[in-house]
């Protein structure tokens, strides 16, 4: 039975490819090819058949909130706020049949706290191929927008890129990394796409998702976390309301945030400012264990402890937080 199924799949794929080759010349042949493929695989529409062999934009596909929750819980360590807000924001947005604007998230915290990892988890739960998907687009400030004298050119290119990709897939995801290294003004080029417009030049952006990643505000987040620790309060007691207002104002007034005096903040177009807390010793150990499992190795607690103890911690006296988060865990583990 399995062999017959595989033969059916293979035949369907060949017929589908043949349909593409003759499409420009013989519409009747296309219909025959699709009909034959449907007979082999059971009734399938042309789109359903095509999407069995190629990536398709599934605009109406619901979010599997349980899978996202499990991914965040098992893979993102020490970030109760980020886990809670990302899950609620995405679930609410994807369940909304008629969103009035795109979902825009701004993730803040020091390097190694999990911002990139969280964006990767989000991408994989929205489009199965994750960062390799044709519908997930990653921009790195120092790579894609390096020259200050070319700001106008970058703005025009960015608008064209986003317009073209949202036209092709309404549920496209755009991730902007290293926002704190982005020249001021560039990001405001996408302001019309993030605003409360049903359409802009005939294109609706209301189902797209924009994610900003930035180190800006890391000092403000650390100060709040440290204040809680010194007061004898658990980090899990920190709530979004303790940090989000401070973050938005701090980033708006920070010349090196990429959002300095940005209309995106001024117009309240960023839906959530999500803080990533500095990681403690216990969280670094969790990262080491996860990396060992990812490599298919048995977890050796002696090695876990040695790798964690090689990291440096701050402040100087208390030594509570890893100054690089979990960023160097992979390279350090290579030595053991």
Record keyword descriptors for this entry.
single chain; 336 residues; alpha/beta; 5-stranded parallel β-sheet; two-stranded antiparallel sheet; 15 helices; 7 strands; globular
Quick summary:
This protein has 336 residues and is α/β, with parallel strands linked by helices. It has helices at residues 2-22, 27-41, 46-50, 65-75, 80-95, 115-126, 141-144, 151-168, 191-194, 218-230, 240-252, 263-266, 281-294, 301-310, 329-333; strands at residues 103-108, 136-140, 173-177, 209-214, 272-275, 313-314, 321-322.
Please, could you describe this protein's structure?
Helix content is 49%, strand content 9%. It is α/β, with parallel strands linked by helices. The chain has a 5-stranded parallel β-sheet. It has a two-stranded antiparallel ribbon with strand order 6-7. α9 (191-194) links the parallel β3 and β4 (209-214). α4 packs antiparallel against α5 (80-95) and α4 runs antiparallel to α6. The longest helix is centred in the N-terminal third of the chain and has 21 residues, at 2-22. The radius of gyration is 23 Å and the shape is globular. The N and C termini lie far apart (48 Å). It is found in: Endoplasmic reticulum lumen; Nucleus membrane. One of its GO terms (cellular component) is endoplasmic reticulum lumen.
């Amino acid at each position: 039975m399995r062999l017959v199924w595989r033969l059916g799949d293979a035949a369907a794929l060949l017929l589908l490819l043949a349909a593409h080759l003759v499409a420009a010349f013989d519409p009747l042949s296309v219909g025959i090819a699709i009909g034959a493929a449907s007979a082999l695989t059971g009734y399938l529409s042309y789109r359903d058949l095509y999407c069995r062999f190629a990536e398709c934009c599934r605009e109406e596909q619901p979010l599997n909130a349980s899978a996202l929750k499990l991914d965040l819980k098992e893979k993102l360590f020490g970030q109760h706020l980020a886990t809670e807000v990302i899950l609620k924001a995405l679930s609410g947005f994807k369940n909304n049949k008629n969103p009035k604007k795109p979902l825009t998230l701004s993730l803040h915290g020091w390097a190694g706290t999990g911002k990139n990892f969280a964006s990767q988890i989000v991408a994989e739960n929205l489009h199965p191929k994750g960062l390799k998907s044709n519908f997930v687009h990653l921009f790195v400030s120092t790579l894609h927008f390096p020259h200050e004298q070319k700001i106008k050119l970058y703005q025009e290119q960015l608008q064209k890129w986003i317009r073209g990709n949202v036209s092709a897939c309404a549920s496209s995801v755009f991730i902007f990394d290293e926002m704190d290294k982005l020249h001021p003004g560039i990001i405001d080029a996408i302001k019309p796409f993030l605003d409360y417009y049903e359409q802009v030049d005939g294109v609706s952006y209301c189902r797209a998702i924009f994610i900003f990643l930035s180190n800006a505000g890391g000092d403000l987040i650390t100060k709040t976390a440290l204040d809680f620790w010194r007061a004898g309060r658990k980090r899990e007691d920190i709530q979004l309301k303790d940090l989000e207002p401070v973050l938005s104002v701090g980033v708006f007034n920070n010349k090196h945030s990429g959002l300095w005096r940005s209309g995106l903040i001024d117009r309240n177009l960023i839906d959530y400012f999500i803080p990533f807390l500095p990681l403690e010793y216990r969280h670094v150990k969790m990262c080491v264990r996860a990396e060992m499992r990812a490599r298919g190795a048995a977890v050796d607690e002696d090695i876990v402890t040695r790798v964690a103890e090689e990291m440096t911690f701050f402040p100087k006296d208390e030594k509570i937080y890893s100054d690089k988060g979990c960023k160097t865990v992979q390279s350090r583990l290579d030595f053991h």
